[in-house]
Specification:
Layout: E1 3-11, E2 17-24, E3 38-41, E4 44-55, E5 62-69, E6 74-77, E7 79-82, E8 87-90, H1 91-94, E9 102-103, E10 111-112, E11 124-128, E12 134-138, E13 155-162, E14 168-175, E15 186-189, E16 192-199, E17 213-220, E18 225-227, E19 252-257, E20 260-265
Antiparallel strand pairs: 1-2, 1-4, 2-5, 3-4, 5-6, 7-8, 9-10, 11-12, 13-14, 13-16, 14-17, 15-16, 17-18, 19-20
């Protein structure tokens, strides 16, 4: 069954709002969004539009098109970052094919314009300020775009995500105050727990934006072994690239075992995934 493309508006507790579309599916409880309904998420709400349009884009795909900053009263176009092309695309101006969720640049290959495939609350996008800098937002209010001048300094925070069975992975996430991470805090996510363990002594690279997330190690409780994530494999297409771009919860990576590569994230342990013979290219 094809998914149904639906409009949504997210309104945060600070008055900021953003708009976009999500692919719903009435047969999957997680994505069974209903026309006209309002859903509470974090300290804000998602309000669904009334129109449903059939689409072949992946169920759970989320797009963002505009962002309203209550502090300045300005509305910004939302940008999608494509890791494969290392390029930002203006979702409102460039648009995308409603049947596929793809945008085809002039003379280029199709680009997926969804920021996530995990449903509302997992999306992230960017606004561009007058100086050309990009500011991340999304996650149902987990990050608001810091488009106004700020004295906050960019830093990297070490973290650990622990699954119920004791498996875990570690990483470092960049923040400039957008997400408000603090060393020593812990919070639930899905069936696991994030712990922000420390401020990383190594400053982020000048090109790192708030939300950039680098996984550094994976520990499998079933084998009692540590595994290198794909971002640290020199021959991997993910080498030295962020594992996520929208803060903790958006990261995904792979580990290698004798029978293939296993994907993992905060929503899925490596042991729950199907092994792949080769690593897929970033999308």
């Amino acid at each position: 069954m094809a998914g149904m493309l639906m409009d949504y508006t997210y309104k945060g507790a600070n008055g900021d709002t953003y708009t976009g579309q999500v692919v719903a599916d009435s047969t999957v409880s997680k994505y069974n969004y209903q026309p006209g309904q309002t859903y509470t998420y974090g300290t804000g709400t998602y309000t669904m539009g009334m129109t449903q349009t059939p689409t072949n884009a992946p169920v759970g795909s989320v797009y963002q098109s505009t962002y309203y900053d209550a502090a300045t009263g300005q509305t910004y176009d939302s940008y999608h970052y494509d890791a494969k092309n290392n390029q930002y695309y203006d979702v409102k101006t460039d648009g995308y094919n409603k049947s596929t969720g793809m945008y085809t640049p002039s003379g280029g290959s199709p680009v997926p314009m969804w920021s996530s495939k995990g449903g509302l609350g997992t999306e992230y996008g960017y606004v561009k300020d007058a100086s050309g800098h990009y500011h991340v937002y999304g996650g149902g209010g987990s990050a608001y775009a810091e488009v106004s001048p700020t004295t906050l300094q960019t830093a990297a925070y070490d973290y650990k995500f622990t699954y119920p069975d004791g498996s875990y992975y570690t990483g470092r996430v960049v923040d400039d105050g957008t997400f408000g991470y603090k060393a020593g805090e812990s919070f639930k996510y899905g069936s696991g727990t994030y712990s922000i363990t420390a401020v990383d002594p190594t400053k982020p690279a000048a090109t790192d934006l708030a939300g950039y997330n680098y996984i550094t190690n994976y520990y499998d409780a079933s084998t009692h072994m540590n595994y290198q994530p794909s971002s640290l494999m020199p021959t991997s297409p993910y080498y030295n690239k962020p594992s996520g771009y929208g803060g903790v919860g958006t990261e995904t990576s792979y580990i290698q075992k004798p029978n293939g590569y296993y994907q993992f994230s905060a929503n899925m342990e490596a042991t729950q995934s199907t092994p792949l013979a080769t690593l897929p290219l970033p999308t």
